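Figure-free illustration: sequence to structure, shown twice.
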Amino acid sequence: MPENRKCSAAGFSLPELLITLMVLVLITQLAMPPLTRWQQENALRTQAQRLSLFLRDAQQLAITLNKPVYVISRAGNGPACLVIAYAANCPCTTQAPCSVRHSQEAQLFRGRVALLGSTYTPVKPLLFQALSGLSFGHAGSFVIGNGSMQIKLILNNLGRIRLCTPADPVTAIVSC
């Protein structure tokens, strides 16, 4: 004689699944703003490191080639531009015969990160002296940012670079 077996329902009911799904959506919504801010900070720190390496490259060229090396910058109107050159009057373009390296080649100022300002201008460029790589009389700064976050690169007369944040704090960068 066949037995009447009752099958027990294995799995979750619809209300249990909906409640679990709502909790997951709530947790995701709470985690998104910090994740977005972290991504913006990371992009800004990466660009600051690239700019620092770009300046170190110019300094190294002055030391190894025993020639004065200029870093010509243009910020503000139009796209930002940085050029490593052997002449102080070199235009800020990629095709200029006097340019050694351009900011586009170094992948600077990509995405939402921009060069907001600089104490250096095409008229008064940054100069690394031959053989020593020092920048006596040419201390100054660059400010890069994306939205409310900014990082300032300060170059002293000895050619040392220091990073700090003048506005909204950025993780792992000290305040100015």
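We now fold a second protein in the same way, so the two outputs can be compared directly.
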Amino acid sequence: MAEGDGSLLMNPAGLIAVGAARRLPLVHLVLDDGVYDSTGGQRCAGGSVDPTEWARDCGYNDVSTVTDVEQLSRFLDEKPFSHSWPVFVRCLVTREADPPPRVTHDLADISASITAFMASAP
């Protein structure tokens, strides 16, 4: 599972649920760039929040922080996919591009599109 730091700050329910499922083989990556890209790149208010501490407090026993691509690659090569418990990884990243544009479609149209797609699934 991958999410941004803003997503985690806005909705930590997944962190709480996964941490409570101590026998869930899941790798939870948080891409932490300190901004809310989906709303225009504003700084996250969570500068004083350490998501690894949140993860520990929620029940994750295996918690790490990586600071570059090589470190993440080594971590993923050696560790998490053979475990039968949740693993939390905070990936400190830098923002290299402008935030993506805001969604311009009407919410009702998006909902109808998803509903139609799900209805056509086998």
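Summary for the second example: Helices lie at 5-10, 13-20, 51-58, 69-78, 107-120.
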